[in-house]
Design brief:
Length: 425
């Protein structure tokens, strides 16, 4: 076979066979199909799409480009969770220990920030000493010992996704359903958990901009998971504004700690408890929301989180240290009303310019910088009240402040945001 013929076939809107997809993906992972041909292929998929059968073949071909994790040595039903990406998305930091606090083992591999979206690994690495790289044996042993581990995806898992994602990130081919579904599900299948909760984000700060697109992505991924015998549920969640209050690595860890100390905003605490309820149910544990909220706020989740940080070499004193950003700029409301919009993408790009995110893969992060919102969409605000704090290393210019303020929209009418929009199983 020749890559050029397969690119042409997809470019012309034809269906690829399983053999053709297997050949292309294994040749790419082996290095015999170069990046420039794979980029052209990704763009052809972006414009022409794939059938469900092609997406299925692509996913399973990708799984075969790496090792499969065997979690059978861990007793119980193992659960995993994956978000399709967001702004201020610190859910894993809280949800994983919360679920583990009920005795359900969580063996989770997470990623770094991609494009404008943040990554759990980067947030955890803002804690001095935290090791994201564990061997498979260490990973399994830690879950056996304390019921929880959050580590980086091993290089040996789904090699094709590692290569293809980096390429998609720089060729404007991330936001297409067959490529997202195969990327997410190949990793989840290879990572070995018995059940999977998929958080499919929608809105300005997500890759899916409409609920209809998000539903299609969710349905595709649920079908792929079920096909290989993994119980899979997807929730469609709002990412039109940043999630919670903080955007930025250390700031998000601090917000996660606050939530696990019972001092978080009620909306995000309730949202995470709803996700935990689904994840627990996937593992056969039915709990009322009140019991889950109790574990979130009475220190049970926090204790698990601290155990995990300590087990992975993180320094517990450093965990609680405030951000060491040199400048904190407060932003105040210039009128009264209700917050009607906090466009997630604009704030993600703003935080990225402060060093909280990477514009290109090789950028070094500044863990300390970012944003903290005192007010979220739907909140009432009085003229002169503080809306947000901006953590930076340099004093902000007038233009930067004006840009930030312009994005905080205040109206006379109250808009109530939705968190979980729909559940697909
Ligand atoms: N997250 C992933 O893991 N892959 C994608 O393609 C998009 C979001």
């Amino acid at each position: 076979m020749r890559a050029v013929d397969l690119i042409q076939k997809k470019r012309d809107g034809k269906r690829l066979t399983k053999e053709e997809i297997n050949w292309l993906i294994s040749a790419y992972a082996a290095g015999t199909v170069p990046d420039y041909q794979m980029s052209a292929f990704a763009m052809a998929v972006y414009f022409r799409g794939m059938t469900m059968q092609e997406t299925r073949d692509l996913t399973f071909a990708m799984v075969e480009t790496g090792e499969h994790v065997d979690l059978s040595a861990i007793a119980g039903i193992k659960t995993d969770k994956h978000s399709t990406g967001g702004v201020g998305d610190k859910v894993t930091l809280i949800l994983a220990p919360l679920v583990a606090s009920f005795g359900v083992p969580v063996a989770k591999m997470s990623g770094r920030g991609l494009g404008h979206t943040g990554g759990t690994l980067d947030k955890l690495e803002s804690v001095k000493g935290y090791r994201v790289e564990l061997s498979q044996n260490e990973f399994i042993k830690q879950v056996q010992d304390i019921g929880l581990a959050v580590i980086g995806q091993s290089d040996k898992l789904v090699k094709a996704d590692k290569m293809l994602y980096a390429l998609r990130d720089v060729t404007a081919t991330v936001d297409t359903i067959p490529l997202i579904a195969s990327s997410v599900m190949s990793k989840k299948i290879a990572a070995g958990a018995d059940s999977i909760l998929l958080d499919v984000t929608v809105g300005e700060g997500a890759f899916m901009k409409t609920v209809a697109e998000a539903e299609k992505l969710a349905e595709t991924m649920v079908e792929l998971g079920e096909e290989v015998g993994r119980k899979t549920v997807a929730v469609i969640t709002d990412m039109s504004q940043p999630l919670g209050q903080a955007v930025g690595n250390r700031l998000e860890v601090l917000e996660a700690l606050q939530i696990m100390q019972g001092q978080g905003r009620e909306d995000i605490s309730r949202f995470i408890c709803s996700l935990a309820q689904i994840m627990l149910s996937l593992a056969g544990v039915e709990k009322p929301l009140a019991a889950i909220l109790q574990h979130l706020t009475d220190g049970s989740a926090l204790k698990k989180f601290e155990e995990m940080v300590a087990a992975q070499g993180g320094n517990l004193e450093d965990l609680y240290r405030p951000s060491s950003a040199r400048v904190v700029t407060e932003v105040f409301a210039s009128e009264s009303g209700y917050i009607s919009d906090l466009p997630a993408l604009d704030f993600a790009l703003f935080a990225m310019k402060l060093g909280a995110g990477r514009a290109v893969k090789t950028d070094r992060l500044d863990y300390e910088t970012g944003l903290v919102f005192d007010k979220k969409v739907g909140d009432a605000v009085q003229k002169g009240e503080r809306l947000a704090r901006i953590y930076s290393q340099e004093k902000l210019g007038e233009n930067q402040l004006t840009e930030f303020k312009k994005n905080v929209k205040i109206m006379r009418v109250q808009r109530i945001p939705k968190e979980i929009i729909k559940i697909i199983s």
